[in-house]
Model the fold of this input.
Amino acid sequence: MLETNNAGQAIQIGEFALHLQSPWRFTSDTEILAGSLDLYEPVDENAEYDEHFDWDKLNGNLRDFKLQELIKTHQLTVISVVADNFGGFDLLFSNDIRLSVFPAYSKVDQYSEHWRLLNNKVTDKTHFVVSGSSVLKD
Done:
């Protein structure tokens, strides 16, 4: 699907989108390929500490870089999903790459959203939302 972003550029988006508010990581059998906390690290993993590092710049942090590389170098086709009792899940991809999402806070209220799955179809913009207190379909 093509949509227009805030800069007026046409961009390709998937039929579904996954918005995560919980910690997550992509792993292979031997390593963590990318993790949610990579957001706060510079692309150069050997760089000296920089108190002025701007992690919020698009593609300017290790997380964005590693996710781009993961998408470019692997065919990511989901083959199974396993959910736990606490709002977490694992997506297993056909090439033995796994996305693990694991809520890591105990607060249970209407604002403790763990993640949501969005349907990007123009005709059906529903959301499936998992929070600390419920599972909702918007």
